[in-house]
Amino acid sequence: MSGGSDSFSGDVWRIYEFGTPDVMTLERMEVPPLEANEAVVRVHAAGVGPWDGWIRSGNSALPQPLPLILGSDISGQIVAVGDGVDHLQVGDQVYGVTNKRFCGGYAQYAVANAAMLDKKPPSIDHVTAASLPVIAVTAWQAMFDQAGLVEGQTVLIHGAAGNVGAFAVQLAKRFGLNSFCTSSGEDIGRVRSLGAGHVIDYSGARFEDEVQDLDAVIDFVGGETQTRSFNVLKRGGTLISAVSKPDETLAQEHGVMAKFFLVDVSTKSLGRISALVRNNELRTNVGVTLPFERARDAHLMLEGQLPRPKGKIVLSVEPT
User: Fold this and answer.
1) Cα–Cα distance, 157 to 111 (Å, whole number)
2) Radius of gyration of the chain measured on its C-alpha atoms
3) Which fold has domain 135-260?
4) How far apart are CA 240 and CA 256, in angstroms?
5) Each residue of 259-285: pLDDT tens digit?
6) Which of 57, 144, 213, 276 keeps 20 to 30 A from 253, CA to CA?
7) How far apart are CA 96 and CA 87, in angstroms?
8) Average pLDDT, stretch 222-228?
9) CATH number for domain 5-132+284-316, candidates 3.40.30.10, 3.90.230.10, 3.90.180.10, 3.30.930.10
10) Phi-psi region of 243 (alpha: psi -120 to 50; beta: other; left: phi over 0)
11) Phi and psi of 285, rounded to 5°?
């Protein structure tokens, strides 16, 4: 190992029980010894996403043994690496996700699976970088790894103004897809500016009346919207959801493939995003940056108990 992880200690946001944001506690913690393929990141910024709230409240899709440190999206500097880490070294500026459980990121020093980190594009700062990993990779994987979309195909993107949807819209434009996108009326202008081919105001029109015979639907909304989406797919089409498992019976009735997936963040998947960022081909959207000490307020925003900005919530992490 390089860097000696036992020499690091810092503040973390930890929970000992599941519940409301009140269960979050800020405390000092020593960085545990590194295992193979891990790295210690001096965190400069940590992203906050809905999945953090699901984990905190006990509604994660994954097992989450307690106690745990919240957070997964991070950007910062490598200060130590474990055995087997050969693509990163001490001093590298990196961004990515901590681990497959999506925890451990709200920390001044975070232990991360090095295979889920990539070098930060120098053209963006740490706050912007921390806003990207989960949402940008989710959009890519929904469109291309899961739906298998290729240039010239037609796709309906639900939740196009949301954090994930906004990246899906841009990727559709970048890779030559014909996109139809749903959003609220107030967001139509922004969705169009991201490159949407056609925007449907879901509050004023039914998308079924606007589109038919699509190759794919990318669902970032769920619920009734997902159920109705079977009606606009051509036979052999694909419905991909990052929100909830689609109805398999409906999928069979319509002769389509329908699938829910969990994002798989890796150095390779981040590399695709990094390349687009370096080429200035992705617009990011940080809604608010809060100091690390206000992580509980960030979760109150997730819960709607404080005003929630449009765009990604990011914590700025300073050393103590």
Assistant:
1) 35
2) 20
3) Rossmann fold (3.40.50)
4) 11
5) 999 999 999 999 999 999 999 999 999
6) 144
7) 14
8) 96
9) 3.90.180.10
10) alpha
11) -150, 90
